[in-house]
Amino acid sequence: MYNLSVIIPIKITSKTMYILNRLKSLIKFFDNFNIEVVISDATVIDQYKNIIKEYIKNFDKIVYINKPIKGIYSASICRNNGVEFSTSDYLLFFDVDLVPNNQLIKQFFIDIKNIEENKFKFLIYPCLYLSKYYTDFLATRSNLFDEEYFHIANKSFQEGNNIDVLYNAINTSTILVSRELFINIGMFDNSFSGHGYEDFELIHRLFIFENQQTIGKDYFTDYKTPLISEYRGFRKYFLIKTLPMYLSGIFTMHLYHSRPLNLMYYKNRIKNFEYFMMKIKENINYAELNETEHIQLNEMPKNIKGFYEVISHVDKKNNYKKKLRKLARSPLLFFIDFIKNKLRKIKTIM
Known about the structure:
The protein is α/β, with parallel strands linked by helices.
């Protein structure tokens, strides 16, 4: 009997073959610990499923399930399927693009004990989203899980440059929770499909249940920015869980991958956002909430430049692609950020 089940959701297509190598690396890494790994596979093509089945024959702590999703991939459905076949009292949701290290594994078991002692109801683990340059560099290393590479990436982020780290994705879907609470609270919402917001919706329910803070009307703001110091709305509230974790040196690294604008998986983000905003207002009397912010965060260290600014070293071609992607996903947010950046430049000149 294992105390922790790691749920890894995947769907492999001809455009995401890189997932296979990343999955193999994770399987080998987690095999060093007393952890059950549940691969919840939504792959449709038999050729890819068979590669996984053949590979995991050499490992005895792997649970493999395949429930194909023929349409747009849903991480919610895939994760929930994985939970169904897991056996542990505690669940960790872990995406295939993430890189852990030994320190992180130790922290998981410390945090399980903290949950058992009722210090927390759930935990979220931040990640540094790596650049293509640093991801390619790690691909040449014999052990990408070495903590040295985490230190290099973290130093890059803290210095405010994006040569190695594009941004700190501090509020993530890497969630540790007891099986009992996860099931009682309703699991992931299977109505989400495609990219985004299914993790925030679950975190929202867990956050409200934990009741660490009284939320204000500002909670229902969705403002995305790479600068954590400028977070607003629910993203800022979630920092109560994630900022102390990051400042204590606990985080994963997210390997870079492209995000083609023409894939429905990414186009569905707007639909997911609209559904998410509807869901988080359920069972909350908005009229009774205070206007002012009800969040108490420790002050962010001024010496971590990455919280406050980004010194861009990304080539212009890639930068234009990122702007086009934002314009396609959220035109309103694109123009808000455009105006905000212009005002920043005017303020600097003055």
